[in-house]
From TrEMBL:
Record keyword Transmembrane helix present: no
Example GO BP: glycolytic process
Gene Ontology MF: a single term: monosaccharide binding
Function: Catalyzes the reversible isomerization of glucose-6-phosphate to fructose-6-phosphate.
Residues at the catalytic site: 363, 394, 529
Taxonomic path: Bacteria, Bacillati, Actinomycetota, Actinomycetes, Mycobacteriales
GO CC terms in record: cytosol
Official protein name in the record: Glucose-6-phosphate isomerase
UniProt keyword annotations, A-Z: Cytoplasm, Gluconeogenesis, Glycolysis, Isomerase
Entry EC no(s): 5.3.1.9
Length: 568
């Protein structure tokens, strides 16, 4: 099926291929096996079903796959021409066919001496020109050379954005808490619920606050509404509209709208239509992060992405981390009818990572038609969710361990703590107690225990052998056979955060390429936006509104209007 000359945007039915069929026939054989037996028969898999990329050590041996399964999955990837599609993306072909755009987030992390010309434009030159401007601006902020309207240096940067213009920087800023150097601290506002802006501005001094209005389109309702309210807060406090130029900068692809908003385009940091919002944290959208951690650490962050990009672009599919993990996700999604994957960072600093991944994965692959416009013939789009360990253990792990559903998990953990404390007991004298115990070791012992218990469980015999009352045995049996991937790294550094993001970006690509969908548009978010505009006039009109299309919405609108003191 793979054909280098095939139009990358003209899709065929992947489920009709022999490779798909082979996997469908193979699944019952694997489903009949317990991971206990799989490990007993293949004792080296724990050492061998692993892949290292950059600073990431990835163990997928606890997945419900045999070596043969992996071969069949790779065959499927070849049948779908994943390699050809990947090369087309890296080369800047217009693989986002519904918007006729290149998809080049990988270009955002190319080193300055790389070359890439797309549609006649020197992309690497453009990227580094903006990076240099971001560097000069954040240097000025961090050194105090950039002063607010009243002459005071900036202390707080507020990023106003939503979706990809918020989730990435907010997640990375938190993950790299230890790399915040200098005196700039960041806050993030996204929700059009005014509670977000009000709570974020609480206690801030307008004289030392700078807003980054981050929006690819610069038309997003939430962002423009929040930015306008923030401008009013600032101008009222500082007494002049002239203050805006010292306290507002923009990140966007839309210079015209930025200027219409009243921000001087000299204070605008550009990116390009070939950067999808959910792939943009490594573009100027990361300006707040750069302000906090500095341009050098931001450079390391970009270099981390690039390590994984190079690996994805060049490693054979059989040893290619994003390919293997993307394929394993698709294995469950399509051949086990398992729709969700839980991501569990054993790192409190990564507590926003799952939220970030939700947009990356679900806005990308939540599609029902192929690039050719035909209805897909297999389910698409894994549901991603998660919370950091160990918190999740005391919330939803019960279902992971003993529920009827199998939910594959990704565990992420680090050898070195970003913070560590000794383990003390409640009876120790806090003033004198010493301990060799490390809370980080305690955290990681939970990581290892959970992946082990999920995979291997505990049989009824083992439970009974512990002297458990017979009637309680069934309740204490741990079925096991619940798959997981363990992703480990030495430390949560800027480079490692970049590597982790790229690892998931390319998994999304692999699954999308096999399904034949466009992972880079998001038409499904439009209708809700336009109907919200229409409904705003309905819920706020002075007179009773005319009936809308359905009795439920009409009744809800009447109820709401009444609560707000308007004629129902
Ligand atoms: O950066 P913008 O243009 O404000 O868009 C914000 C977000 O809105 C979306 O278009 C979805 O509504 C995302 O794709 C995007 O990240």
């Amino acid at each position: 099926m793979a054909d280098g000359n095939r139009d990358k945007n003209q899709e065929f039915d992947i489920t009709a291929t022999a490779q798909w069929q082979a996997l469908a026939e193979h699944q019952p054989e694997v489903a009949a096996l317990h991971l206990r037996d799989v490990f007993a028969e293949d004792p080296n898999r724990g050492d061998e079903l692993t892949v290292d990329v950059g600073d990431l050590h990835i163990d997928y041996s606890k997945q419900r796959v045999l070596r043969e399964t992996l071969t069949k999955l790779v065959d499927l990837a070849r049948a779908a021409d994943v390699e050809g599609k990947r090369d087309a993306m890296f080369a800047g072909e217009h693989i986002n066919n519904t918007e006729d755009r290149a998809v080049l987030h990988t270009a955002l992390r190319l080193p300055a001496d790389a070359t890439l010309s797309v549609d006649g434009q020197d992309v690497v030159g453009d990227v580094h020109e903006v990076l240099d401007r971001m560097g000069a601006f954040t240097d000025a902020l961090r050194s105090g050379e950039w002063k607010g309207y009243t002459g005071k240096p900036i202390e707080t940067v507020i990023n106003i954005g939503i979706g990809g213009s918020d989730l990435g920087p907010a997640m990375v800023y938190q993950a790299l808490r230890h790399y915040v150097t200098g005196s700039i601290h960041c806050r993030f506002v996204s929700n059009v619920d005014p509670a977000d802006l009000v709570a974020t501005l609480d206690g801030l001094d307008p004289e030392t606050t700078l807003f980054i209005v981050a929006s690819k389109t610069f038309t997003t309702l939430e962002t423009i509404t929040n930015a306008s309210a923030a401008r009013q807060w600032l101008v009222k406090a500082l007494g002049s509209d002239d203050a805006v130029s010292k306290h507002f900068v923009a990140v966007s692809t839309n210079a015209e709208k930025v200027s219409e908003f009243g921000i001087d385009t000299a204070n605008m940091f550009e990116f390009w239509d070939w950067v999808g919002g959910r792939y943009s944290v490594d573009s100027a959208i990361g300006l707040s992060v750069m302000a906090a951690i500095g341009k050098e650490a931001f450079g390391e962050f970009l270099a981390g992405f690039h390590i994984v990009d190079d690996h994805f672009r060049t490693a054979p599919l059989e040893a290619n981390a994003p390919v293997l993990l993307g394929l394993i996700g698709l294995w469950y999604d399509n051949f086990w009818n398992v729709a969700s994957r839980v991501v569990l960072p054993y790192s409190n600093d990564m507590s926003r990572f799952s939220a970030y991944l939700q947009q990356l994965t679900m806005e990308s692959n939540g599609k029902s038609v192929t690039k050719s416009g035909d209805h897909v013939t297999a389910d698409t789009g894994e549901v991603f969710w998660g919370e950091p360990g160990t918190n999740g253990q005391h919330a939803f792990y019960q279902l992971l361990h003993q529920g009827t559903r199998m939910i594959p998990s990704d565990f992420i953990g680090f050898a070195t703590a970003t913070d560590d404390l000794p383990v003390l007991s409640a009876s120790d004298d806090p003033l004198t107690a010493q301990s060799d115990g490390s809370m980080h070791d305690l955290l990681m012992s939970n990581y290892f225990a959970q992946t082990k218990v999920l995979a291997f469980g505990k049989t009824a015999e083992e439970v009974a052998a512990e002297g458990v009352e017979e009637r309680l045995v069934p309740h204490q049996v741990m079925p096991g056979n619940r798959p997981s991937t363990s992703i480990m790294s030495h430390e949560l550094t800027p480079s490692v955060v970049g590597q982790l993001i790229a690892l998931y970006e390319h998994q999304v690509f692999v699954a999308g390429a096999i399904w034949g969908i466009n992972s880079f548009d998001q038409w499904g978010v439009q209708l809700g936006k336009s109907q919200a505009k229409e409904l705003l006039s309905v819920i706020t009109s002075a007179d009773s509104p005319a009936a809308q299309s359905d009795s439920s919405t009409d009744a809800l609108v009447r109820w709401y209007r009444k609560q707000r003191g308007r004629t129902p």
